[in-house]
Amino acid sequence: MSPIVKKVAQLMVGIIFMYGIYIIVHGHLTPGGGFAGGAVISGAFILLVLAFGSNVMNLKSREEGSSVVESVAILFFLLLAVLAFFIGTTIFFSNYLPKGNIGELISAGVIPLYNIAVGVEVAAALFTIFLALVIYKEEIST
Amino acid sequence: MELILSILLLFMIAGALYALFAKDLLSALIACGIVGYGLVICFLLLKAPDLAIVQIVVESITLIIMVAVVLDSTREDLKETIVLKEKGVSYINAKYVFNVLTVIVLALFFLFFFNQAIDKLEPLGQHVTRMSSAYIEHAAEKTGSANLVTGVIFDFRGYDTLGEITILFTAVVGVLTILRLKGRK
Amino acid sequence: MIVYILCFILFQVGLFGILTSRNIIKIVIGLSFMEFSVYLFLVLIGYIENASAPILTGNPAQTNFVDPLPQAMVLTAIVIGLATKGMLLTMAIRIYKKFGTFDIRKVTSLKG
What we know:
The complex is a heterotrimer.
Chain A lengths: L2 H23 L8 H18 L4 H27 L28 H31 L1
Helix pairs in contact in A: 1-2, 2-4, 3-4
Chain B lengths: L1 H20 L3 H21 L3 H22 L12 E4 L2 E4 L1 H25 L13 H12 L4 H9 L1 H21 L7
Helix pairs in contact in B: 1-2, 2-3, 5-6, 6-7
Chain C lengths: L1 H19 L3 H22 L22 H32 L13
C-alpha cells in the first residue's frame, strides 16, 4: 500500500482499539458488550494487516499467538463459571460477587469479567480466521 | 413505523434478487452488503442498539473475508437456462427443472406453516411480554446490570453464551485444520 | 402484518438462491439471506410501540421496555452465523484449489 494509507492506518488503529475496549468495559451500562467490542478490536488488527502487507514468517507467529490467546480466554470464561460452585452458592453461572449500585462502572458482579473474557475470545477468533486465510493465499502464490 | 420498515424491506429484497442474478461475483457480494446494512437500519428503528453495533461490524468483516476469497478466482457466475444447446441439438436441462420444482414444493411447505403461525401473532408493536416480564422486573436487583440484554445473556441464559463461544472455538479449529498445507513437525 | 410477509419473502429468496445456483459463493450468499430474515423476524416479534430500548437509565417512571429476550438470542445467533460462514468459505477455497472451479456440478471425484 502507499505511504498515505500506511500513515492513516497508523493514526486510526489506536482510536479504533480504544473504542473497542470502551465498548467491552462499558458493556453492562451502555449498548454493546463482549461480542460487539471483540469484533471492533479484531477489525483494528485486520486493518493493520491489510495496510502493512504480509510477511509470511511474521504472520505465522502472530497466528499461533492469537490462537493461544483464544484458548486461554475460553478457559478463563469456564473458570469464572465453575468458580460459582466453590464461592457462595452452588449454582452454575450464579452471580457471586457483590452487585454494587446500578449505573456505576464497577457493579453488576461477575458480568464485566464475563464481558472481558468473551471480548478477548471473539477478537482472537475472528483475527485467527482472517490470518489463516491470508497465510494460505501467500503460501499458494509462492 | 410499519411503512418505513416495509420500504426498507422492499429495498433489501431487491438487493437480494440482484445478488442472486448478478453476472460478476464481486457485484453479487456488494449487493449482499445492501441487505446486511439495511438490516442494521431496521435494528436501529426497532430499538435494538446492541444488535446494530454487532451487525455492522460483523457485516464488514464478512465482506472483507468474502472479497478475499473471490478476488483471485475467475469471478464469473455460471448461468443456467431451461433449454440447453449442444452441437446444434437443443434439449431440456433436467437438473435445473428438478431444482426449480424442489424450490416450489419447499416454498409451499413453508407457506403452509407460515400461514398457520401468522394467525397466532400479534400485529406489529402490540407484543405482550409473557416470559420476559419477569426478566424486566427483576433484572435490576438480580443482576445489577443496567443493560438488560447483557443481563439476560450472561446471567439468566449463561448456558447459551457458553455454547455459543464453544461453537466459535470449534469453527476456528476447523478453519485452521482445513487450511493447513504442510504438516507441522 | 405486511412486514412479516415481506420477511417471509426474503426467506424464500434465500431458499431459491441456495437450491438453484451452481456457484458455491452464491450458495453462501443465499444462506446469509435466510439468516438475515430470521434475525429480523425474531426482533420484529419483540417490538413494542412507543417503548424504549432495554437499558435502565435511572429514571423510575420508565417501565415500558422492548422485549430483551429475542434480542439476546439474535445477538448470539449473529456471531454463530459469522463462524459458520467462515467455515463454509474455507471449504469453498479448498474446493477451488483442488478442482479449479466453484461449480458444484464439477465436484464429482467421489462419484464412483
